[in-house]
Design brief:
The protein is an alpha/beta fold. 32% of the residues lie in helices and 15% in strands. Strand 10 (376-389) and strand 11 form a beta hairpin. The radius of gyration is 23 Å and the shape is globular. It starts with 5 loop residues before the first helix and ends in a 21-residue tail after the last helix. The structure holds flavin-adenine dinucleotide and iron/sulfur cluster. Iron/sulfur cluster (SF4) is lined by residues 46-49, 52-54, 64-65, 68, 105-107, 115, 117.
Length: 501
Amino acid sequence: MPDPNGFLRYDRRLPARRPVPVRISDWREVYPPAGEELIREQATRCMDCGIPFCHDGCPLGNRIPDWNDLVRTANWDAAVESLHATNNFPEFTGRLCPAPCEAACVLGLGGQQPVTIKQVEVEIADAAVARDGLRPRPASVSTGRSVAVVGSGPAGLAAAQQLARAGHTVTVYERDDAIGGLLRYGIPDFKLEKQHIDKRLAQLTAEGVRFRTGVEVGVDVTAEQLRAEHDAVLLACGALQGRDTPETPGRPLRGVHQAMAHLVAANRVVAAAGDGKPALATLPDGTPIDAAGKHVVIIGGGDTAADCLGVAHRQGAAGVHQLDLYPQPPGERDAERDPWPTWPWVLRNYPAHEEGGERVFAVAVQEFVDDGTGQVRAVRIAEVTVEKVDGRRIVTALPGSEREIPADLVLLAIGFEGTEEQPLLAQFGVTRNRRGAIDSGPDWQAADGVFVAGDMHRGASLIVWAIAEGRAAAAAIHTYLGGVGDLPAPVDPARQPLAAR
Ligand SMILES: Cc1cc2nc3c(=O)[nH]c(=O)nc-3n(C[C@H](O)[C@H](O)[C@H](O)COP(=O)(O)OP(=O)(O)OC[C@H]3O[C@@H](n4cnc5c(N)ncnc54)[C@H](O)[C@@H]3O)c2cc1C
Ligand code: SF4
C-alpha cells in the first residue's frame, strides 16, 4: 500500500546539477545520479491515485504509480520489469523527456509540486543496466518473415526491438555512419552520453536486429529492392527539414547556419575525441563551424536552441544571445489558458540557460548584417508583437525599436518543416502532406506494406512519441505479417497530446 501522506512529508527534490564551471569544461551529462535514498524518498510522494492522470500525459501508458511504489519499497527488479513493459528505452526518456506526465500529475491540482517521475524513471533504467546489463530477450521461434526499418532514431529502434522479439527478422537501414537518429548526432552528450545508445544497440544486436549504416534508402538501395527483400517496410526517417528564413536580407552571408549543422559537427567532434581521434568542428564540405571566441546569436526558443546554447558555452563562445519571437512566458501555469493537466506554456529554463548567455524575447531579425567581406558581423533586430489572425501568424515590428547585436556565428533553430523531400518518398509512392509529414491509415500503412512512424508521421515531436509510435507501428506490422497474438499498441495514428476541449 503506497504512502498516502508521502507528499506531505517530503518536498520535491532533484539531485543537484554539476556546478556550471565544471560541467562546461567537459561534455558529460549535467545531472549526476540521484542516489537510492533520495529517489526512494521522492517515489514516496506518489499517491497511487485512483485515476492516475500521469498516465494520460504519457503516450506510452507507463505504469507510473506501480513503479513509483516498487522504488519506494526498493523492489528494483520488479520496477525494471514494470518500466520495460511499456517503454523500450527509458534511459532515453528518463534523461530527455520534457515529462508531460509530470505536468499531468494530480499533485499539481492541489498546488503541490509533481512527483519527480522522470528522475525515478532514469534511476530504474540505470538500475536495469547495473543489475543485468540489459539482458537480451531474443525470440524463441522465428516467424520466417522479414521487415526493413528505414531510419534508426527512437521510432525505428523501438519498432525493430518489438518486431525482433516477436520473431521477425529485422534489418535497420541508416544513412548516417552510426545508429541512433537525432539521439546520436543531434542531441549533445551533456544531455545524453552516447554510451546509453551503445548499450541498447548491443542488446538489440544480441536479439537479432541487423544494422546497415551508411545506406541511404532511395539512393544506395531502391524501394523496389527493399520490397523484394522484405515482407514489410517501416519508414521512420524523422522530420529533419529545417525551417529557414530565405527572405531575411543577408541570409546567404558566411556564418549564418542551420542549428543542426552546428550540433552535428559538435557531436561528431565529441564522438571522435571519445575514439581518441581529435577533430575540428566542420560542415561536411570542411568549412569550420565552431563557437570558440565568437559572438553567437541563436534564433529560436526550443530544445534545439537550448542545445546550441550549451554547445556554444562548451566550445568557448565570447558571448551568446538567444532570440525568441514570442514574449517571455509566465513562470507558472496560467490556468485559464492551459488548465491542469494539459501541457502549460511557461518559461522553461534548461540547464544550458544557467550556464550563461542572454535571452531576448519578443524580437525578430530584420537583417543579417555584412562586415563588407560576405561574413556576418551583426544581426539587426526589432521588437515585435505576434498575433494569430484566421490561423495565420502576423508579426508586427514596433517602429523605432531596431538595434544591432554583434554576431560572428548565427544559428537558425526556428523549427522543422516535416520530413525531407528525398527520392525514397516517390519510390515508395508516398507524399508529404501540408505539414511535410506522411499520413497513414489507422493501421499505420502509408502504402501497401509500407508503414510510417515517429517524426516522419507526426512532424517534429518528442522521443516519447517516437517510441510510442514505433511500438504501435510494430504491432500493426506484426498483424499484417500474420503474427500470433497482439503486440502492445499504446497509441493510434490520430492520437494527440492531452488538450483542454
Ligand atoms: C537538437 C534537438 C534536440 C532535441 N531534444 C529533445 C529532447 O530533449 N527531448 C525529446 O523528447 N525530444 C527531443 N528532440 C526531438 C527528438 O529528437 C525527435 O522527436 C526524435 O528523435 C524523433 O525520432 P524518429 O525516430 O522519428 O526520427 P529521428 O531521430 O530524426 O531519426 C530519423 C533517422 O532516419 C534517417 N534517415 C532519413 N532518411 C533516410 C534514408 N533515406 N535512408 C536511411 N536513413 C534515413 C536519418 O539519418 C535519422 O537517423 C530534439 C530534437 C532536436 C533536433
Ligand atoms: S498522478 Fe502523480 S501522484 Fe498520482 S499516481 Fe501519477 S505520479 Fe503518483
